[in-house]
Amino acid sequence: MEDYFDIKLVIEYFPQILARIHITLLVVLVAALIGFILGILIAATRLYKIPVLEQLSIVYISFVRGTPIIVQLFIVYYGIPLIVQKIFHINLNRIDAIYFVILTYGLNSGAFLSEVIRSAISSVNAGQTEAAYSVGLTKIQTFLRIIAPQALVTAIPNFGTSMAGLLQDSSLAFSLGIIDVMGKVQAIGSVSYHVLEGYVVAAIIFLVLGILLERAFKNLEKRASFKKGAL
After folding, report:
1. pLDDT score, position 76
2. CA distances from 67 to 16, 72, 111, 181 (A)
3. H helices present in the chain, as ranges
4. What confidence score (pLDDT) does residue 43 get?
5. Do 110 and 34 contact (CB within 8 A), yes or no?
6. Which of 3, 154, 174, 193 is spaced 20 to 30 A from 74 at the CA atom?
7. CA separation for the pair 159, 94 (Å, rounded)
8. In this structure, what DSSP letter does residue 179 have?
9. Which CATH architecture has domain 7-230?
10. Cα distance between residue 17 and residue 95, in whole Å
């Protein structure tokens, strides 16, 4: 059994793999920010039923939600440089792969978050909007003061779920040569031929990150609910 698994190697590998956690967090946080901004824009096209853009948004969301993230990674990494090369004659092959990874996860996250944002806004009672208009509030004021605070409380649990999913999906970034947590596991395993120990370390890291993320969103939800009640 010792030939297949050595607990000492888990201890030895831990600091080496943990040292790459900043790459994983960079991918997750930047992609989440891109996804949130993109999600708002896509949700707006559907809520306000903007011609053409609404139909394109539906197709985009269906594609992202219906295909594996690994397929999306390869399409973005290999497809975008090819299209840009053909149309604009610009070579993107020298760009670091991490930018394509972040773009892919941002696009993926945007599709899921757009549905979260859209459903959260739609859940606010339309009567409150009409009441706000009746007292002289503008559309922007109504959204910021009435709709957004309530929609935020509704959306926070789903935001947390999406972030947890994004964190787990980031484990596939190594397939494009990114040396993050999982990339380091693969690199160590290719040299030592002890991959299982690395997977155990990665599992511990992702588990801890997942727990911290869950607690952070629960605390955020409580604070948002408290402020909503105070209003």
Report:
1. 96
2. 33, 7, 12, 24
3. 7-18, 21-47, 53-66, 69-74, 80-88, 97-122, 126-134, 139-142, 148-169, 181-192, 195-230
4. 93
5. yes
6. 193
7. 34
8. -
9. Orthogonal Bundle (1.10)
10. 25
Q: Using CA atoms, how far apart are residues 110 and 64, in angstroms rounded to an integer?
A: 9
Instruction: Note whether 80 and 100 are within 8 A (CB).
Output: yes
**DSSP letter, residue 172:** G
List C-alpha distances in Å: 47 to 35, 91, 131, 143: 18, 38, 19, 13
Distance CA 216, CA 225 (A): 14
Q: Are 120 and 152 in contact (CB under 8 A)?
A: yes
| pTM, rounded to two decimals | 0.90
Neighbouring CB atoms inside 10 A of 7's CB total 10
What is the DSSP code (8-state) at residue 79? Answer: I
Residue type, 53: L
Would the CA dihedral through 33, 34, 37, 42 be positive or negative?
negative
Distance CA 169, CA 33 (A): 16
Read off the tokens for 201: 């370390």
Q: Which two tokens stand for residue 20?
A: 């790459």
Task: Tokens for 55, please give them.
Answer: 């139909």
Q: Structural domain boundaries of the chain?
A: 7-230
